Amino acid sequence: MSISRDKIEQVAWLARIQLEDSEKEALEGKLSDILGMVDQLQAADTDGITPMAHPLDATQRLRPDEVTETNKRERFQAVAPETQDGLYLVPRVVE
Amino acid sequence: MHTSTLSELARALEAGETTSEALTRETLERIRAHDGRYNSFITVAEERALEQARAADKARTDGRAGPLTGIPFAHKDIFCTEDLLTTCGSRMLENFAPPYNSTVAQKLDDAGAVCVGKANMDEFAMGSSNETSYFGPVTNPWGDGLVPGGSSGGSAAAVAARLVPAATATDTGGSIRQPAALCGLTGLKPTYGRISRYGIIAFASSLDQAGTLTRDARDAALMLNTMAGFDPKDSTSLDREVPDYSASLENDLSGLRIGLPKEYFSDELSPAMAEQVRSAVREYEKLGATVKEITLPHSHLAVAAYYVIAPAEASANLSRFDGVRYGHRCDNPQDLNDLYLRSRSEGFGEEVKRRILVGTYALSAGFFDAYYLKAQKVRRLIQQDFTNAFNEVDLIMGPTSPSPAFAQGDKTDDPINMYLEDVFTIASNLAGLPAMSIPGGMVNNLPVGLQIIGNYFDEARMLNAAHRFQQVTDWHRQVAPNSA
Amino acid sequence: MQWETVIGLEVHVQLATQSKIFSGASTAFGAEPNAQASAVDLAMPGMLPVLNEGAVRMAVQFGFAVNADIAHRSVFDRKNYFYADLPKGYQISQMYHPIVGKGEVSVNLSDGSERTIGIEHAHLEEDAGKSLHEDFQGQSGIDLNRAGTPLLEIVSEPDMRSAEEAAAYLRKIHAIVTYLGISDGDMSQGSMRCDCNVSVRPKGQTEFGTRSEIKNVNSFRFVEKAINTEVERQIELIEDGGEVQQETRLYDADRDETRSMRTKEFANDYRYFPDPDLLPVEIDDEYIDRIRDDLPELPDTKQARFITEYGLNADEAAPLVQSQTLADYFEQVARGSGDARQAANWIMGELARLMNQNEVEIQDCPVGASDLATLILRVQDGTISGKLAKQVFEALWNGEGSPDEIIDKQGLKQVSDSSEIEALVDQVLADNQAMVDDYLGEEVAKKQKKKFNALVGQVMKASQGKANPAQVNDILQQKLTSSD
């Protein structure tokens, strides 16, 4: 299965990855190779097989509804690129 | 002391023959002196390590020492360590010092082990040769210009170079076992859920599992004793008692049923490699085990299923790296999307971007059923193969990797060829089974890994089998020619 | 052409848990920015979600309240998109296996009819943070305190045919969640938010028209207005030969119009897939039964009880059960006064009028239930007339004291002393001889009655409204008959 330039651009946008034209070109080949390899799956007979999302047949544990966290804002924001007045800054969000 | 195993060092500390501070100083010196050759460390934590060492010595004087107290070791740079840089091999996290510990780091801290530094790795654990690290490739102590395997290549090289007796690592598709095989080490990936994933930077959540790289199975058991266990902070952690893995190492192997999957001895494996693996298995027969051929009929689909599931999960797991709360942020973003696009494109390397794109594609409208769901179904078929096999045998053995250590640059331009490095290891991640690689022979003077796959939570039996093998062979005692 | 409106609502309800749905951070309102954003809420590397039992319990409670199927097994999925207020780059939601299945609620409409609205499903998910647009050197500030607050998204069937039905449905959902105590339902604070899917089709057509989604309509009143405005826009558009686009629109209450939200370069593709960090949620019958046994009385049951216990009719009972607080208020007044019908009349009459006029909700009503009960009693025992009672009620509303104090202070006590009344009547008859003659000369009974009432009015006026009207009637009748 080969992947078109358009599709690469669409997927890159969804993933918010910026690609130079030269990168797109290289990717067309490599992604097509990978998808070609992955296409082996299509030959498998999976009728009646339940998809397996987790390796173990376990179920979700439920946490009691209790507040266990304290305010660690200063610690957390010490590693942030840009903050002000306790807020994380991003370029202006347009609604 | 660098020739000693972790267990030997523990005994020396216990006997008062040395102190943790002395061991740690020696370790730090050796890293400083020799790691230029391997590039196995991204960060060396000199001050922090010495502090930990002194605290460990004090704990020993106070009678509070456990088996790992005072032992220097390295963390793969994927484990979050409080206030100590944790880069995941990426420019994205070049300056990231987490304000918290991973559960594994906390447990090892609590046990008094001394983290001397953070080991190099493929970026975000995506790679099989340690060539995707932003901090440069790692060189295998078995030969200049050879890869150590990946993604835990730094952990493996550091142990094989005898810089540290043990290192933590993670395994999503073979990232512990393949480097163990290529560096002549004992690598253990426990059952999914056995070790908490909390604070381990996620690659593919349903496949990631932490484990160890050590010189032998005895050391692996000691590490696992400390690292394993239920963690309420990880929903996928299993609330199940942790046995003493050291206690059963000496158990007799007579009657042990070993299965050799015929699919693992196919064209992908060179005759020389196959012969080494078969000859290792013959040792088990001498130890009283019975060996039979088994079949894992869907194993040829494992790589394909993996390269849908792992990138799909990764594509979402890596979305949090957006330049807002931590990590790389581009200069002067014009708007929100510009911030995302440039921060991520600058912060991530080529292989990471490739996998994010593959994963995004596999999940995108119109492809979800054909790729993602199909891969999840094949995943179940692969698991069922193992379930059937374990009705007949206790352990499955085979090669860990198709070839020994290869040259740097050999496969970097050919992703598919690189992905096939994990052709024998991926299936146990898909199934969530515990698996090991132990040194099982040599080809062209390079180590060959023997892979041991166990049933769920059967780590004790695997370690027992590995240990008994190591009592009658000396593959694991071979020293890499370029080791420090 | 005759048009039919088709409406479906998606209602997001913030659940009143103490801690967040996947972390132990507090959900309380009003904290400093990001003071309640834990490492999990901030999507720090390696952080993992663990599900809050409280959120599951509340979802199940809601399920029972709308007679829905409760899923014994539900699954969390990742909804992938990038946005400033979404730290992980995905929202954890339930796409394929929601916890609450099909259900229904009934609503009462103003024409006295009752409609049943289907609920397609309800699922658990996490709330996002908030962007603040004050000037931070041209940037926006992100507060993630709200990120991870549990939401129950309740998705109706497209069963509503008018804005009135939609508003009634929303009120019913509000009543249910507040009765259950699983949310404060405060729309002004965003604890309850509503997206309206609106389309029109020629009457008689079975296929649905193209719908638009109006986002975040945040009051009951705006829901009606926004829908009506959008319906008008769509009809006008179609009648002018245009086509409705499937799109998201925002309601601008100031201009009373909806407008299209900026469309993205590429359409969104959320790439839902099961969250590998969370396992399937399984709840057993015992858990479900315990929740059912502990359910409080719900609006429909309460309405039925008001009808049987207090002898109200459905039209009287329906508005009273709209909120738990109002219903409780009614019951206190009804019990305190022993006259449920009067209690209902006062609450839906004078009280509702003043609340509306002053935009006050029942919980902030200045007239205490016991005071209203006393006032009703004072009318019953003849202390004041029904007419003056309204005056007392206004004084109660204005906080001028207890009913008895007000009656006293304003001298509103009813005059029931017959000699006092007789004197008044005599005075009026003497002062209004013309009216008396007119009355006596009238031969048509009906007209005579009217003239009699005019005289009663004069007496009441002379007494400043305080004379007991029944006594005035009797005495006046006597006097006029004797003068006959």
UniProtKB/TrEMBL annotation, chain A:
Biological role: Allows the formation of correctly charged Asn-tRNA(Asn) or Gln-tRNA(Gln) through the transamidation of misacylated Asp-tRNA(Asn) or Glu-tRNA(Gln) in organisms which lack either or both of asparaginyl-tRNA or glutaminyl-tRNA synthetases. The reaction takes place in the presence of glutamine and ATP through an activated phospho-Asp-tRNA(Asn) or phospho-Glu-tRNA(Gln).
Recorded family membership: Belongs to the GatC family.
Taxonomic source organism: Halovibrio salipaludis
Catalytic activity: L-glutamyl-tRNA(Gln) + L-glutamine + ATP + H2O = L-glutaminyl-tRNA(Gln) + L-glutamate + ADP + phosphate + H(+); L-aspartyl-tRNA(Asn) + L-glutamine + ATP + H2O = L-asparaginyl-tRNA(Asn) + L-glutamate + ADP + phosphate + 2 H(+)
Known partners and oligomeric status: Heterotrimer of A, B and C subunits.
Molecular function as annotated in GO: asparaginyl-tRNA synthase (glutamine-hydrolyzing) activity; ATP binding; glutaminyl-tRNA synthase (glutamine-hydrolyzing) activity; transferase activity
Pfam families according to UniProt: GatC
EC number(s) reported in the record: 6.3.5.-
GO terms for biological process, alphabetical: glutaminyl-tRNAGln biosynthesis via transamidation; regulation of translational fidelity; translation
Protein name listed in UniProt: Aspartyl/glutamyl-tRNA(Asn/Gln) amidotransferase subunit C
Domain of life: Bacteria
UniProtKB/TrEMBL annotation, chain B:
EC number(s) given by UniProt: 6.3.5.7
Catalytic machinery residues: 76 (charge relay system), 151 (charge relay system), 175 (acyl-ester intermediate)
Keywords, alphabetical: ATP-binding, Ligase, Nucleotide-binding, Protein biosynthesis, Transferase
Stretches for region Disordered: 1-20
GO biological process: translation
Catalytic activity: L-glutamyl-tRNA(Gln) + L-glutamine + ATP + H2O = L-glutaminyl-tRNA(Gln) + L-glutamate + ADP + phosphate + H(+)
GO MF term list: ATP binding; glutaminyl-tRNA synthase (glutamine-hydrolyzing) activity; transferase activity
One cellular component (GO) term of this entry: glutamyl-tRNA(Gln) amidotransferase complex
TM ranges: none
All copies of domain Amidase, residue ranges: 23-463
Short name of any one Pfam family annotated for the protein: Amidase
Top-rank taxon: Bacteria
Subunit structure and binding partners: Heterotrimer of A, B and C subunits.
PANTHER family referenced in this protein's UniProt entry, alphabetically: GLUTAMYL-TRNA(GLN) AMIDOTRANSFERASE SUBUNIT A (PTHR11895:SF151), TRANSAMIDASE (PTHR11895)
Function: Allows the formation of correctly charged Gln-tRNA(Gln) through the transamidation of misacylated Glu-tRNA(Gln) in organisms which lack glutaminyl-tRNA synthetase. The reaction takes place in the presence of glutamine and ATP through an activated gamma-phospho-Glu-tRNA(Gln).
NCBIfam families according to UniProt: gatA
Protein name listed in UniProt: Glutamyl-tRNA(Gln) amidotransferase subunit A
Designated gene of the protein: gatA
UniProtKB/TrEMBL annotation, chain C:
Keywords: ATP-binding, Ligase, Nucleotide-binding, Protein biosynthesis, Transferase
Nucleotide-binding listed as a keyword: yes
GO MF, one example: asparaginyl-tRNA synthase (glutamine-hydrolyzing) activity
Superkingdom of source: Bacteria
Known catalytic reactions: L-aspartyl-tRNA(Asn) + L-glutamine + ATP + H2O = L-asparaginyl-tRNA(Asn) + L-glutamate + ADP + phosphate + 2 H(+); L-glutamyl-tRNA(Gln) + L-glutamine + ATP + H2O = L-glutaminyl-tRNA(Gln) + L-glutamate + ADP + phosphate + H(+)
Domain Asn/Gln amidotransferase: 328-480
This enzyme's EC code(s): 6.3.5.-
Coiled-coil intervals, chain numbering: none
InterPro entries given in the database record: Asn/Gln-tRNA_amidoTrfase_suB/E, Asn/Gln-tRNA_Trfase_suB/E_cat, Asn/Gln_amidotransferase, Asn/Gln_tRNA_amidoTrase-B-like, GatB, GatB_C_1, GatB_Yqey_C_2, Gln-tRNA_amidoTrfase_suB_CS
Any matching Pfam family: GatB_Yqey
Principal EC category: ligase
SMART domains, per the entry: GatB_Yqey
NCBIfam families noted in UniProt: gatB, PRK05477.1-2, PRK05477.1-4, PRK05477.1-5
Function recorded in the entry: Allows the formation of correctly charged Asn-tRNA(Asn) or Gln-tRNA(Gln) through the transamidation of misacylated Asp-tRNA(Asn) or Glu-tRNA(Gln) in organisms which lack either or both of asparaginyl-tRNA or glutaminyl-tRNA synthetases. The reaction takes place in the presence of glutamine and ATP through an activated phospho-Asp-tRNA(Asn) or phospho-Glu-tRNA(Gln).
Subunit structure, as described in the record: Heterotrimer of A, B and C subunits.
UniProt-recorded name of the protein: Aspartyl/glutamyl-tRNA(Asn/Gln) amidotransferase subunit B
